[in-house]
User: Which sequence fits this backbone?
């Protein structure tokens, strides 16, 4: 095949280009065009900002598995058409959501003052 391609290039004077970008598996957005907007709609209601406002990340209490289950239950996606949980985790991270348990702000504990008695 390589020799045939090379002789064809020499005879015609044109370089034959390989379609490397057309090969491989297509992204999930190509197969399910509304998936990212549906994920965003589900996760937005359960997200919150960093409690200390150090970063602009949005943390959500939903795991990727729960997001997948809600896509099936509320958005009507068939189970076999949806991507796997690791793929949904990747898409959540790409959208700026980070599945993480969000701890409530804890009040600081009162410190007990210890008085030392000095020996006299």
Assistant:
């Amino acid at each position: 095949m390589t020799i045939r391609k090379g002789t064809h290039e020499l005879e015609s004077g044109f370089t034959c280009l390989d379609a490397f970008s057309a090969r491989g598996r297509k992204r999930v957005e190509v197969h399910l065009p509304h998936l990212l907007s549906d994920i965003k709609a589900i996760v937005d209601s359960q997200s919150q900002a960093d409690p200390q406002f150090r970063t602009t990340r949005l943390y959500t209490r939903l795991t990727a598995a729960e997001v997948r289950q809600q896509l099936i239950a509320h958005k009507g996606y068939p189970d076999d058409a949806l991507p796997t949980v690791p793929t949904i985790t990747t898409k959540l991270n790409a959208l700026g959501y980070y599945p993480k348990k969000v701890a409530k702000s804890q009040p600081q504990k009162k410190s007990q003052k210890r008085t030392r008695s000095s020996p006299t």
